[in-house]
Amino acid sequence: MFLIRIILSILFLTISNFVLANGGSIDGSRFKKTGNIRLLQNADIELVKEDLFIKVINDTTFFEVHYFLKNNGKTQQVHYGFPIDLYAGGLGTDDYGVPFYIVPYYDFRKYVPYFEPYFNGKHEEIVFWKQEKAYKANVYEGASPYRNEIVKDVPVDRLWYALKLDFEKDSTQELTIKYAVLNRKVGRHGGDMGFLPRTTKRYFVYDLFPSSSWSDGIVGNFSLKIDLSDLKSHDCEYKIEGLENLDKNENEIYSFKQEDFDLKKRSYIGVTYDNTRRFNAWFWQRYGVGVAAIDSVASSAENANYLIDNNPNTVWKGKEGDWIKIFTKKRVETSMIRHREYKYYILPKGIVFLNGDYSSKEAFDENGQIKSMYMKANNIQIKEPNRFLKNDTLRIHRKLLHLPPSHYFLEGNDIYEVLESPTRYSFFYIPMYSSASISYDTFFEVIEIQVAKSTDSTKEISISDLYVFGEWRYVK
Description:
Elements: H1 2-14, E1 31-35, E2 38-39, E3 45-57, E4 60-71, E5 76-87, E6 91-93, E7 99-101, E8 114-119, E9 122-123, E10 127-140, E11 150-167, E12 172-182, E13 187-188, E14 198-199, E15 202-207, E16 218-227, H2 229-233, E17 238-241, E18 247-248, E19 253-262, E20 268-273, H3 276-287, E21 294-299, E22 316-319, E23 323-328, E24 333-337, E25 340-355, H4 361-366, E26 370-377, E27 380-381, E28 384-388, E29 395-398, E30 401-402, E31 446-454, E32 460-474
Parallel strand pairs: 1-15, 3-16
Antiparallel strand pairs: 1-5, 2-5, 3-4, 4-12, 5-11, 6-7, 8-9, 8-12, 10-11, 13-14, 15-20, 16-19, 17-20, 18-19, 21-23, 22-32, 23-31, 24-25, 25-32, 26-27, 26-30, 26-31, 28-29
């Protein structure tokens, strides 16, 4: 305990020297940044070489760092700390993207799935503690496309992983750190209003500055590899920040090498990327119900049954002006929850498309898709908010609904990942801007679609499948 008190006192004295990387999107995961090792006492230790490997997979970033440390002084024991920063209170947004606080989580280490230090190849024990409200930072709200709000002076907690290293005189030692962090994000259930979840771009920061406390702050040999092949395989747009002149190979692996690398001048490495498709896929599989809500389908073109056969190789072919009618039926099912029987049915909430010809990559590239459409539910026009003014005094709603550009199957061939919806809000949103006499329990028995525009000059379109997602409603 005495050792921890000494180290903490040093931390509070040096905290103002840290580089704070502010900005970005709302931090639903609470993770702000992670950092290089920091020397927690005066010691004549030189950072001779640092090899940093970073790999991003889905919403997690994996790090492996190799430090080669030379003792230019006498035999000594050195204490170092590895900082990982989280916002003290979780942040969220309401249905209009306005930021607010949510209840903080209690297990701070859940955002660091593992942390493993090795000294000269041998696993070492660590001391862990939390430095509450180490500093404050500004957070930019990014969940809503209509706003760019900022939350000021948000307290940040710092998690410290501390380790004792024994250095012999004139020796060079290798320290390896392997760990993972959950990236900054927002991903939350949209509730009755939201058919699609609200998400932001993912973001992580690796802070290089703390290691400048070793000797003169210059690394004799610094190398970096960033593996973004997973983002490429899922067609995620991304941006690398903090370092320039990176080399890239065909597998989306970036590399950087430099001698006499000044850690005081190069403060951080960051990656921002869009992982919306994979989050939507997870969301729909967890909360959505597909063809179970559909009773039958009809259309102005042939083979309407291809739309609901859950087979991407059978493709419905149509053209601009064609229509589709989807008929749903209230089916009461039975489920056992905690040894108790419950009856429920599926209330239609929104529709998604496998928009295009997914029978092959060649067919997908050659055939047209729906670009825009009109839709009704129970003969009520479905409209989508087009924009919000900043003061929310005016809302414009459009009858013409647009489908985002489709993607062919990505790595893993997950159908859910390439589904597209023309609406963000559920059918329940209608009462907010319509005089129609419906409630949140209204069952939508007929959903009508008319193709307005094709992506192809032939005006033809292809749909491999469509799904009506719903919400579970218990029968009282």
